[in-house]
Specification:
The complex is a heterodimer of chains A (112) and B (112). Chain A has strands at residues 5-7, 10-13, 19-24, 31-37, 44-50, 53-56, 65-68, 75-79, 88-95, 102-103, 107-111. Chain A has 112 residues and is mainly β. Helix content of chain B is 0%, strand content 56%. In chain B, strand 7 (62-67) and strand 8 (72-77) form a beta hairpin. The N and C termini of chain B lie far apart (38 Å). The chains are: A mainly beta (112), B mainly beta (112).
Chain lengths: 112, 112
């Protein structure tokens, strides 16, 4: 069974630029999560989808971050415009409904 | 307010000995606990979990113990192997959406 796929693996941008990350969950997993992990901390949930509906986006900075999962399969997370403090690893995870979450390799973002 | 606490940022153990990683929580509503392992440049990997109706769960070399009265859980690795060297995260969840609350992680080094 293929794992969670994410791209790109690394991204360097300048502040005020925009960036987009892509995630393809494990086949058959209804729930998809985007996390932000800053060095030395645990992952922080940004948004949780169940199929193509949003379950929780309470910690998503909606003035600059957006995410979609239009067909209930893959998902994109966008930051526009980026700030220095957005430098982090962005992790995508998926699960069967509310089961154990399985993570992709993450995208390392550096904002200069 | 850190609801899940891993008070030891790092731990060093000799190969073949037992590794004990600790986690404390403050929210009595948590009813499901998980341990994830993370290697550098990879996403977290699910290791083992325990429901609050149990006090022990074992999977090979890994055992998780839960003490609800003390709001404390621990992960035991016996025997420890150099490949176990990684950052270990404790996470807890409650409620219908199963949102994970993460600790800050403990970096385990197993020395040959």
């Amino acid at each position: 069974e293929a794992g969670v796929a994410q791209s790109p693996r690394y991204k360097i941008i300048e502040k005020r630029q925009s960036v987009a990350f892509w995630c393809n969950p494990i086949s058959g997993h209804a729930t998809l999560y985007w996390y932000q992990q800053i060095l030395g901390q645990g992952p922080k949930l940004l948004i949780q989808f169940q199929n193509n509906g949003v379950v929780d986006d309470s910690q998503l900075p909606k003035d600059r971050f957006s995410a979609e999962r239009l067909k209930g399969v893959d998902s994109t997370l966008k930051i526009q415009p980026a700030k220095l403090e957005d430098s982090a690893v962005y992790l995508c995870a998926s699960s069967r409904l509310l089961g154990t979450q399985y993570f992709g390799p993450g995208t390392r973002l550096l904002v200069l | 307010d850190q609801q899940v606490k891993q008070n030891s940022p790092s731990l060093s153990v000799q190969e073949g000995r037992i590794s004990i990683l600790n986690c404390d929580y403050t929210n009595s509503m948590f009813d499901y606990f998980l341990w994830y392992k993370k290697y550098p440049a990879e996403g977290p990997t699910f290791l083992i979990s325990i429901s609050s109706i149990k006090d022990k769960n074992e999977d090979g070399r890994f055992t998780v113990f839960l003490n609800k009265s003390a709001k404390h859980l621990s992960l035991h690795i016996v025997p420890s192997q150099p490949g176990d060297s990684a950052v270990y995260f404790c996470a807890a969840s409650a409620g219908n959406n199963r949102k994970l609350i993460w600790g800050l992680g403990t970096s385990l080094a197993v020395n040959p």
